[in-house]
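User: structure tokens for Phosphate import ATP-binding protein PstB, please.
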Amino acid sequence: MGLIEAGAWGLGRVAAAARPGRPWLRVKASPWWARVLVAAGARRASTSDSMAVTYPANAPSALTSAAETPGESDPPGSSAAMFELHDVCIFYGDAQVLRRVTMSISRKQITALIGLSGSGKSSLLRSLNRMNDDVPGFRIEGRIAYERQDLYAAEVDPQEVRRRIGMVFQRPNPFPKSIYDNVAFGPRVNGMTGGMDDIVEKALIKAALWDEVKDRLKASALLLSDGQQQRLCIARAIAIEPEVLLMDEPCSALDPIATAKIEDLMQELARDYTIVIVTHNMQQAARVSDYTGFLTVEVDHEGQRYGRLVELDRTTRIFTKPNDKRTEDYITGRFG
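Assistant: Done. Predicted tokens:
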């Protein structure tokens, strides 16, 4: 059963995913559900019991070829994939936290990872730029290819990986320096000495922060609001001109207004960067992402818990007609 036909939780959560400007699909809802849908952020199509929720009526699945969708980015698994993972397993000491993940991540698209706590979402994200390397006991099996090169090959420099694949963390973490020096820090460390003023301005403009701070660049970054600090951290990440941005729960510590600004910013940044985001907020995943992967927790015969990727598909399909019942149960609130 597709989620458009699913129960109350599914309708409420799908409604929160509505993006303005998309073609309308009509779903039946009682007056009680109409109130929930409106509160979740959907728009009322009429005063009747029939609600309208924005979703593409002809959204291609992950298996649709580029030839069938001219002008769109290629789906996961195509030659345009930025990352390709094959049978990836992650361990910390003797504990396996992720088992046999195979997936592709598309170029200049937003891919969201959702799922149960403990399913390995953050470990998977951090493995994409080798942030796990310094964690005691970390070990990885399988292959992660970035631009067709094995990220974990012996000749690959982890520092260069992290320059090309930036990271934004759960809580804003500006340095106790000026706004200017926060943005300039990465370029200076990487030897980008020329035109620093232009580099800082460009990064702050891209992070939608320039107009708010251009007259106080020498002020402490710690004086900014939480939302501004998070956008500053995004500016700091993109100042060194990465190709990918990884975001680990970037809005979990922010209020709704600051969250909306970060979400709008992600949509703008996806024009220039490949973005992968971990979020526990399914509505956020549905609002901002092009693709969504769902991870769950399984238990082996020895009672050991580990994470596993259930499915990855276009976000519209994950939230309306997933292939796996476990995904549907999670989306509709039947577990997790």
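User: Anything notable?

Assistant: The CA atoms of residues 39 and 330 lie 21 Å apart.
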